[in-house]
Amino acid sequence: xLDDRATAHADAERSPAxxxxxxxxxxxxxxxxxxxxxxxxxFSNKPGASDETRDRVLQAADELGYRLDRxxxxxxxxxxxxxGVLIDVHQTFQADLIGTIYAEAEAAxxxxxxxxxxxxxxxxxxxxxxxxxxxxxxxxxGPLSEVDYLRTLADRAVVTVVGRALPHGAVDTVxxxxxxxxxxxxxxxxxxxxxxxxxxxxxxxxxxxxxxxxYLAAMRRHDLSDHVRxxxxxxxxxxxxAAAHTLLAEDRLPTAVLAGNDRCxxxxxxxxTRAHVDVPGDISIVGYDDGPLAQLSRxxxxxxxxxxxxxxxxxxxxAIGRLENDDLDPQDFVIDPHLVVRGxxxxxxA
Amino acid sequence: xLDDRATAHADAERSPAxxxxxxxxxxxxxxxxxxxxxxxxxFSNKPGASDETRDRVLQAADELGYRLDRxxxxxxxxxxxxxGVLIDVHQTFQADLIGTIYAEAEAAxxxxxxxxxxxxxxxxxxxxxxxxxxxxxxxxxGPLSEVDYLRTLADRAVVTVVGRALPHGAVDTVxxxxxxxxxxxxxxxxxxxxxxxxxxxxxxxxxxxxxxxxYLAAMRRHDLSDHVRxxxxxxxxxxxxAAAHTLLAEDRLPTAVLAGNDRCxxxxxxxxTRAHVDVPGDISIVGYDDGPLAQLSRxxxxxxxxxxxxxxxxxxxxAIGRLENDDLDPQDFVIDPHLVVRGxxxxxxA
DNA sequence: TCCCTGGACTGAAGCGCTTCACTAACGCGC
DNA sequence: GCGCGTTAGTGAAGCGCTTCAGTCCAGGGA
Lengths: 350, 350
Known about the structure:
- Chain A is an alpha/beta fold.
- The first copy, chain A, has helices at 10-13, 25-32, 36-43, 51-64, 70-77, 93-107, 123-132, 147-153, 178-191, 208-221, 237-248, 262-274, 308-324; strands spanning 82-88, 111-117, 137-141, 158-162, 172-176, 197-200, 229-231, 256-259, 284-286, 303-305, 332-335, 338-340.
- Chain B binds a DNA duplex through residues 1, 22, 24-26, 34-38, 40-41, 43-44, 47-50, 53, 68-78.
């Protein structure tokens, strides 16, 4: 947008041959014939400018293609009003959370920055990136880091952990009552006549220890402690594949398997199907998460559904709440899940 | 800054009861007994400090828990060295791209910022966010925006579009040779004896127009123009579901369907399976993308695989290349895909 | 008349960093 | 003993914004 106005303004607008200098507030101010201060007020929606001036300034900004510079604002304000969200791109379950987080944060006037952990980029690094962008609040979706590290973070920013239980009072946590989900699954299987129910756990993955404990407890409640069988795993398809191979290599399959999550369940399903083990005829399988795949008819997985929207909403509210009012005790918010029965579970084989 | 000297040492470090003032370069400088300038040099890995001093400064920084402030750096440098990546959280295919993008950008000394489009947050907004964080380069993964808008963006930042062809010379693009992928699919089906091959297209979704054209061309080459059948759709499971219902409502099914992408294929598969239409006995299905689901044995989808790593790597290189050397012509980089034959295609029914 | 209030607006300082232009000290060759 | 180039280091300006402390000018009591 070149000098489309009185030549007096031209200097501020003309840019050195092709090199577009990004317009600043000063440019807008000059063009609208007011001070930078006033422009700033207007862009922050603060009172102090007449409606007439306000319009004139906004129009000038528009003509120049002006865009506020967050970095500068952040620096000047000393506050960023930004929430950093740690995600794991491969955990599809998190996709739903993100949408809600954006919406909720925006409503409260906060920015959101995403940082993904990936094979080439460990969680630590992803979090540091968020911190160096001055995020005031960190929302960590299923973080794998050690508790000590998370606790350390807590005095650099407000930390909220989603989907993982943490020792008492470390930081705010929002999660699903994993124990209940597992208990429902076991109850369901027992009702169908299963007794030999194995569990492929998720190792150190978020939620896993709780699920494992809940499995043990539920089995005990049904007097099935003798049939307890925990196969070490992870929350990945590969772990499911490995577990299935382990089971197939033995004399006798259990009649049902509780997977650590959906992805693991799908790994199991995959191997069993290829090996012509009928699911649920020969063996029943239960997942956890109710991700987008679970409901596909070719998969049709019995699984435990989490209230993703609730999780996300509360995570944001915790973060913001603590930001605006520091002296709350760390909270642990727990949402009930429920079992979704589909085609991978059926009566125990004889 | 206060009188940062003698007694100030203590002041800089002690924080006013709980309220952690984040340490700055000045704090580090004071503690190490050097100037701020020198600290800055050291943190930018520039020469001009002796090894001995360097160590001392780094140690001081460490003791203070100092963390560089990107916002300030960005402001001061006038350059952000940041690439903004637009993603769609639900397009699982993109997850793989992201990992590579991070790695590649980091190697070149660039930061990466992610911004997701979501139901509550349209693409436009997601892109503006990136811009206001001063991203110098924008990498748009399968953007849906109109060409004009994308062109407009190009003079605010360096733009690279991934996975979508754009009219000549608009901006840099990196994409798969969709035409080839489709041609391979059609050839494969024809070899299996198929003649009635329908195509569920992706409407305006990225890559879709190319795929549709390629389908028409391939059918023509096989003298099958009479059997051409395009069913309007989208790159989602729902579109596949709808298309399947459309087909089932007719007298006679085609013997094969080319879906716009894997997700659409899975929708088709889902409905056919529930309707007891045998795949591939009654009808063959081909997808596109080879996403994580395609290879699951319960799905086992014949599909076209894209070289995600190559796409991501070139996208980053384009962006950076143009950033460091402005006067290149817009490029259109095309990578060959290849057909992965799995279980959803078979001989045409009699 | 004078003082006060409040609305509209401005000037200047400062956020934490980079960078340009310097200075001081130290060989080194002649 | 002089100028020279290097290395190690410093001071200050300035990036684009916010914000504190004013200024200026109605209009309204008393």
